[in-house]
Design goal:
This protein is mainly α. Helices cover 43% and strands 7% of the residues. It has a three-stranded antiparallel β-sheet with strand order 1-3-2. β2 and β3 form a beta hairpin. α5 crosses α6. The protein starts with a helix and ends in an 11-residue tail after the last strand. The relative contact order is 0.13.
Length: 196
């Protein structure tokens, strides 16, 4: 009797465990992973929108194109003063400055190019343009990007807006009409002007 009782107690003491549920991976849909990777892409001059570029500080804008904040401010003043209200005007003025820095006919820094005698208006005085002009700042970034992407030729070293008026009929002699502007290229044979 005792043996039967012990046997019954042994049977009931066995704990019946439920079958183990296989481990499930928490798999996210592939499109979500891709979208996340795209949003983490580092911001550069080439993938930022114009509004994102405009929102940057002067130091950030200058760093984006590898120049000093001082050079960026001085260049902004010149672009602000030398161009009309149109963004295209501002971009072309900025492009001329960048091209001159690389051309062998001109000096090799932005500050030196801006201060060449007779080239840009009143750079060293208070009547020069404003360094706070957001459109001029954006134009500098766009000009740099357009030159790098081959949208503005390297040999564009002079520029006048088509809207500029003068009594001198020979004023535009040597200029050519290009995309609603008068530009004058150069016969310089340096590697930059040849586009190399």
């Amino acid at each position: 009797m005792t043996e039967h009782l012990l046997m019954i107690l042994a049977i009931f003491s066995i704990v019946i465990t439920p079958p183990e549920v296989p481990y499930k991976l928490d798999v996210k849909p592939r499109y979500r992973v891709i979208a996340k990777a795209e949003t983490n892409e580092p911001k550069t001059l080439y993938n930022m929108t114009e509004s994102e570029l405009s929102a940057l500080s002067i130091k950030q804008k200058a760093k984006l194109i590898g120049i000093s904040a001082k050079s960026f401010r001085e260049m902004t003043k010149v672009v602000n003063h030398e161009s009309g209200a149109k963004m295209d005007d501002k971009v072309m003025v900025a492009a001329v400055i960048f091209n001159r820095v690389h051309c062998k006919q001109f000096r090799n820094t932005i500050i030196k190019v801006l201060n060449e005698p007779g080239q840009f208006y009143d750079v060293k005085h208070t009547r020069s343009g404003s360094a706070k002009d957001k459109k001029a700042q954006l134009a500098i970034l766009l000009a740099y990007r357009d030159i790098k992407q081959g949208k503005i030729p390297h040999n564009v070293l002079y520029f006048n807006s088509i809207s500029y008026r003068t009594k001198n009929r020979n004023r535009y002699k040597g200029y050519k009409h290009y995309n609603n502007y008068f530009i004058r290229d150069t016969k310089c044979k340096c590697d930059w002007c040849k586009g190399e």
